[in-house]
Amino acid sequence: AVAVGKATSFNPKVVIMDEPTANLALKEIGKVLELTLRLKDHGISIIFITHRLEDIFTVSDRIFVLKHGHRVAVKEKAKTNKDEIVKLMFIGTDAQQD
Question: Carries keyword Methyltransferase (predicted)?
């Protein structure tokens, strides 16, 4: 959270967060997600990289699924669910792109 606070002092248009909730306790995860949502509310775009589906569905509008560094799918959060995202993560193909 401190690093994100420092980054926002430069008035960025985009903030990249790579596994920001890894190795955190639940309370701290909640704080990071809350901060992320506040940044979104202020018009800052967030690239949120994580393996935690709960986090993805909390903060994302659009979900990009990558496998071995290649884009598998792009899904609008409102048009997908956790089961579909897990399938894309493991199978690695999407017959129907949004």
Answer: no
The bridge status of strand 62-67 relative to strand 70-76 is: antiparallel
Q: Which domain holds residue 22?
A: 2-91
**CATH number of the CATH domain containing 15:** 3.40.50.300
* Whether the predicted model's global pTM rises above the 0.85 cut: no
- The model's confidence at residue 94, banded by pLDDT at 50, 70 and 90, is low
Give the total number of structural domains in the chain: 1
Q: Name residue 63's beta-bridge partners.
A: 75
Q: What's the N-to-C CA distance of the chain in angstroms?
A: 32
pLDDT in tens, 76-92: 999 999 999 999 999 87
Q: Alpha-carbon distance 60 to 83, whole Å?
A: 16
The closest of 56, 58, 45 to 86, measured between CA atoms, is: 56
Tell me whether residue 28 is in a domain.
yes
